[in-house]
Amino acid sequence: MQPIASRIEAHEASYDVVTSRAFASLIDFVEVAQPRLADGGYLCAMKGKVPSDEELQALDSDWHIKTIKLTVPRLHDSRHLIEMSAKNA
Questions:
Q1: DSSP string, the chain
Q2: Residue boundaries of the structural domains of the chain
Q3: Can you list the residues of the chain whose pLDDT is less than 50?
Q4: 15-86 CATH
Q5: What is the pTM of this model?
């Protein structure tokens, strides 16, 4: 595995895992990242607060969504990892 730190729009390949940090919304992230996701792959979004129920429900019909609370040493703000995999994969 080799991490790539660049904008996803600059890539044409498919990837097993696509991650984001500080993306505006999960819906926007999925729209941009899904075309680059390999079959059976995962989208992973780093978020501060847990996304709203409305945002999660908008994705629920097409994606398995797992929210993982993260603990960051010396940081008291909320941090979460949102892991998504396509239901049709």
A1: -----S-GGG--S-EEEEEEES-S-HHHHHHHHGGGEEEEEEEEEEESSPPPHHHHHHHHTTEEEEEEE---TT--S--EEEEEEETT-
A2: 15-86
A3: none
A4: 3.40.50.150
A5: 0.86
